[in-house]
Amino acid sequence: MYKNKKIVLVIPAYNEEKLLAKTCSEIPDFIDNIVIIDDGSTDNTNRIMQEIAEKDERVIALTHLKNKGNGAARATGFKWCVEHDPDIVVTIDADGQMDCQDIPALIDPIIEGKTDFAKGNRLITGEAWKIIPRIRYLGNSALTLMTKIASGYWHVTDSQCGFTAARIEIYRTIALDKIYPDYGVFNDLLVTMNIFNFRVMDVPVKPVYGVGEKSGMRIGKVLFIMPLLMLRLFLRRMVQKYIIRDFHPLIFFYTFGTLLMLVDIPLIIRLFYFWGTTGLIPKINALAIMFCTFMGMQSILFAMLFDMEANKELKGH
Question: Strand 59-64 vs strand 164-167: parallel, antiparallel, or unpaired?
Fold first, then answer.
């Protein structure tokens, strides 16, 4: 128990035979249960998990026979939590990149009623640039920008951080079977929580690197898969939150701005065609491109401002 609250820690693990035991050894005594999910590992992760469970009665060992993805493993842990009714659910990764000494900093704002969901932010200090590998830092920053737009939590940074704490009501509310099964789970959860108007806040945490971890981030996913996922999540939030649940005029601004930017495409093609064939730039064509570009961008920016205003109360204090 921590301040009279039952705390459960969820740890998804995939091929973490080198770091799982170390990670579990650093978990504070006030954690009531530790739910480890072996997500179809092909190394000795399952055996190590079972050994940890034998030594620590708090540990619940769950196994996926086949690898289903980070999100699916978390969902399995969340389902166990919903069935056993803790007050707060904390998640960390099995690779030792989270400092368990930061867990109280995530839990306290929830206990004090300041937020419903607290997530770690490794980028909030200048030290992160020095500690985190450059490609991961830049990839994370790009995903954070996309997540701000998709989720409506414009104040949230370091969206890919898996160090979180949540009121159990969140996992009772959302459809756990529909959680995105892979590493887009963090972005999917934020979008879903925004639809249900849960408060989210960032908490500074210490980034831990160089302990033998392997990154789950792949440049191909960042460049191709994740932008498509973000677009799908953004459209789902627009429909669910601003059309079905409560109509908001920002839909008109986003739609009008997008249409104008799309009209730009054939206009630009036409301009370059005439420029290439005649050596002259059609003045009306150029003016039309300028009009569509500026009006389109202005409409989209207005929509973003409306979105920020509509979600300002969802920022934890």
Answer: unpaired
Give pTM, 2 decimals: 0.90
Extract the residue ranges of the chain whose pLDDT is less than 50: 211-213
Helices 134-151 and 185-195 pack at an angle, to 10 degrees, of: 20
Question: Domain-by-domain residue ranges, the chain?
Answer: 7-242, 248-314
* C-alpha closest to that of 200 among 115, 284, 92: 115
What pLDDT is stored for residue 222 in this prediction?
61
Task: Give phi and psi for 190, each to the nearest 5.
Answer: -65, -45
| Contact call for residues 68 and 39 (beta carbons, < 8 A) | yes
In this structure, the strands spanning 88-91 and 164-167 are: antiparallel
CB atoms under 10 Å from CB of 301, counted, come to 12
Helix axes 185-195, 226-239, angle to 10 degrees: 10
The token pair that represents 59 in the structure block:
């540990």
Domain at 7-242: CATH architecture: Alpha-Beta Complex (3.90)
Instruction: Give the contacts of 111 (CB within 8 A, at least 6 positions apart).
Output: 2, 3, 5, 88
